[in-house]
Structures are given as C-alpha cells and as structure tokens.
Design brief:
The complex is a heterodimer of chains A (about 110) and B (about 120). Chain A is an all-beta fold. In chain A, about 0% of the residues lie in helices and about 55% in strands. Chain A contains no helices and eleven strands. In chain A, strands 2, 4, 5, 9, 10 and 11 form a six-stranded mixed β-sheet that branches. Chain A has a five-stranded antiparallel β-sheet with strand order 1-3-8-7-6, with no helix packed on it. Chain B contains no helices and ten strands. In chain B, the strands form two sheets. In chain B, strands 2, 4, 5, 8, 9 and 10 form a six-stranded mixed β-sheet that branches. Chain B has a four-stranded antiparallel β-sheet with strand order 1-3-7-6, with no helix packed on it. Chain B starts with a strand and ends with a strand. The chains are: A mainly beta (about 110), B mainly beta (about 120). At the A-B interface, strand 4, strand 5 and strand 9 of A face strand 5 and strand 9 of B.
C-alpha cells in the first residue's frame, strides 16, 4: 500500500464549477499537509499548507484535513481555465515528504 | 537567487553515458532535495542534504546515482552509465531547514531522455 493515495482523475469541468480533489494516507505520523500545483513543463508550486485538522481558506482555494479519517481535500471555487494543471497532494513527517501521483484538471472555458 | 534554479532544462544522452544535473537552491535555504518524476508516477525521493550533516541517500535507486552539495549551496546529481529507465524529470527542491514547518520550493526540473 502506498503511503499516499490520490484520485487519479483526470478531471474535466466547465469554467465556474467547484472542483474537489482528494487524497488519503496511511501514516498517522504525518504532521504537515500540502497541495502543489504543477503546470506542464514546470516544477510543482506550493498552493496550500496546513498542519492541523480543519479547513484553511485562501481566496478560491480551501484545504481540508481530517486526521481521524486520514483524508485531505482541496476545493477550488469558481474554477478558471488558468486552474488547469496537475494537482499533487503532499504530506510530511517533518523531514521527509510523500507525494500523491497527481490529478490532472482541465477547466473548459 | 529568487527561486530554485536547475540546469540544463533538457538533456538528451545515449545509453551508457554519464550525466550531471545541477541545482542552485534559494539563497539561505539549508535543506536541498532531489526527486524524480516519471510519467504517471508521483515524485520519487532520491536524496536530501541538510546543512553540513551527512545526506540521506536512502532513495537513490542504484549505485549509478550519486549527489554532492558543495559549500552548502549548489548541488550536482550524477547518473553514471545511464539506462533508458533513467528517463524522467529530475526535480530539485529547497527549504529553509528540515523538520520545522518546512515548505518545499521546487525548480522547473531537468527533463532527461536516454536514447
């Protein structure tokens, strides 16, 4: 079993839709939870970072962590064509990072 | 520098040749990581450096892979006798330090193609 499992997608949604991206994990030692956005031929870019259960909001993006269920989500409201990218979840014990395989998202104008 | 810089951005080589990939981390970042990303796969950890401590080499897939970090800044990942399965994007990342609310910042990667 992988440390981190991510819904493979790909996802294709119309502009303005709400997008939900999800990951599950098995290691209860994970303390930090992140979402990265990766455009084609670019490195991953840190989008959201949190270390506690609950919700964290930043503009159109909301990161949700449920440590009891070992489940994290990223919600994108009012999705835009510029949100089209691959989204990677990541988790850390503090000195080692574990990444999901990524979900490819396309937002259709 | 303003961000993590990697060079070259693309490298095409023949099977059996050696290659060197370079990473220049964000100024002041003491931790530096190398990852490999293959199509449809997640990021595969290779090695990380933290300050002057011995590097964690536990992710290196074979003894053909090695890395060094000179002067606590620039790092070079070397792949000897390249094989076709080494073809991937090699990503470098840096963070302020390991273990304390660290956030990873990535370079744009080196696309390695082994023919």
């Amino acid at each position: 079993q992988k440390e981190v499992e991510q819904d493979p997608g790909p996802l294709s949604v119309p502009e303005g839709a709400i997008v939900s991206l999800n990951c599950t994990y098995s290691n209860s030692a994970f303390q930090y939870f992140m979402w990265y956005r990766q455009y084609s031929r670019k490195g991953p870019e840190l989008l959201m970072y949190t270390y506690s259960s609950g919700n964290k909001e930043d503009g159109r993006f909301t990161a949700q962590v449920d440590k009891s269920s070992k489940y994290i989500s990223l919600f994108i409201r009012d999705s835009q064509p510029s949100d089209s990218a691959t989204y990677l979840c990541a988790m850390s014990t503090g000195n080692q990072f574990y990444f999901g395989t990524g979900t490819s998202l396309t937002v259709i104008p | 520098g303003a961000g993590v810089s990697q060079s070259p951005s693309n490298k095409v080589t023949e099977k059996g040749k050696d290659v060197e990939l370079r990473c220049d981390p964000i100024s002041g970042h003491t931790a530096l990581y190398w990852y490999r990303q293959s199509l449809g796969q997640g990021l595969e950890f290779l090695i990380y450096f933290q300050g002057n401590s011995a590097p964690d080499k536990s992710g290196l897939p074979s003894d053909r892979f090695s890395a060094e970090r000179t002067g606590g800044s620039v790092s070079t990942l070397t792949i000897q006798r390249t094989q076709q399965e080494d073809s991937a994007v090699y990503l470098c990342a840096s963070s302020l330090q390991v273990g304390v609310n660290e956030k990873l910042f990535f370079g744009s990667g080196t696309q390695l193609s082994v023919l």
